[in-house]
Design brief:
With 240 residues, the chain is of the alpha/beta class. Helices cover 34% and strands 17% of the residues. Helix 3 runs antiparallel to helix 4. The two termini are 29 Å apart.
Length: 240
């Protein structure tokens, strides 16, 4: 998901409400079966099908995103339009991506469209899994989840969201976990370069008792975008 944290309706802002698949999440975040036995938060969830598919597999997963405050019938339709918008961009910029996970832009469009449809169906059937909320102030109690996943917002939109926002958002994600936060990717979506403030943010987190490390993953769509940032509380409460 790449929803603008200030968006109130589909007519405002230009960030894409992305529909990534469950299998993409598994690869992006190197999710093991043990990871998926935990209580998981997807933030921001956008129109991803992760929570929908996870629910069919018995995973206790919840998504949070400001777009869930929109009219929910409209949101399902909007997710499909956004999949089409993303496909149009890829057709013009295919050279900027690595075509190993997806065979070609048509395959990408198929996966994202299926994910958007799964999301829309689950949103209607299980609305309680989708909570309206925006970083850096989320509506959950401390340590509500074991594992928090965050993709394609922090670092990705580093040219719009400053370091103060990033730090506040990272601390908020850590506040909600009993174990670990995983973030992917670490690159700006505009240039494909690593977010310049990453090392400074890691140093500030370390000063507050939050450990961090970089981990390679078996997923690369942006060139060089095959690492996630893993954050862990110093107390490691709840780790099994």
């Amino acid at each position: 998901m790449t929803a603008d944290m200030t968006r109130k309706d589909p007519g405002i802002g230009a960030m894409l409400v992305s529909a990534r698949s469950f299998e993409e999440y598994r690869a992006m975040f190197a999710l093991s079966n043990d990871d998926l036995s935990r209580r998981v938060l997807d933030c921001p969830g956008g129109a991803a099908s992760f929570v929908a598919v996870a629910g069919t597999r018995g995973v206790k997963a919840v998504a949070v995103d400001p777009v869930y405050a929109w009219d929910r019938g409209m949101l399902g339709e909007h997710a499909l339009r956004e999949a089409e918008r993303g496909h149009a961009f890829l057709l013009e910029h295919a050279y900027r991506f690595v075509w190993t996970w997806f065979g070609d832009p048509a395959d990408h469009a198929r996966v994202r469209t299926e994910a958007a449809r799964d999301f829309a169906a689950d949103l209607a059937a299980h609305p309680e899994r989708y909570v309206a909320g925006a970083l850096p102030d989320l509506p959950f109690l401390d340590r509500s989840f074991d594992l928090v996943l965050s993709s394609h917002l922090l670092f990705t939109y580093g040219e719009r969201l400053d370091e103060a926002f990033h730090l506040a958002a990272l601390l908020e994600l850590v506040r909600m976990t009993r174990w670990q936060v995983r973030l992917f990717p670490l690159l700006l979506h505009t240039t494909g370069e690593r977010y310049a403030g990453l090392d400074r943010l890691r140093a500030q987190l370390a000063g507050g008792g939050v450990g961090s490390r970089l981990q390679r993953v078996d997923y690369e769509f942006q060139h060089g975008g095959n690492e996630m940032l893993v954050l862990e509380r110093s107390d490691r409460l709840g780790r099994r």
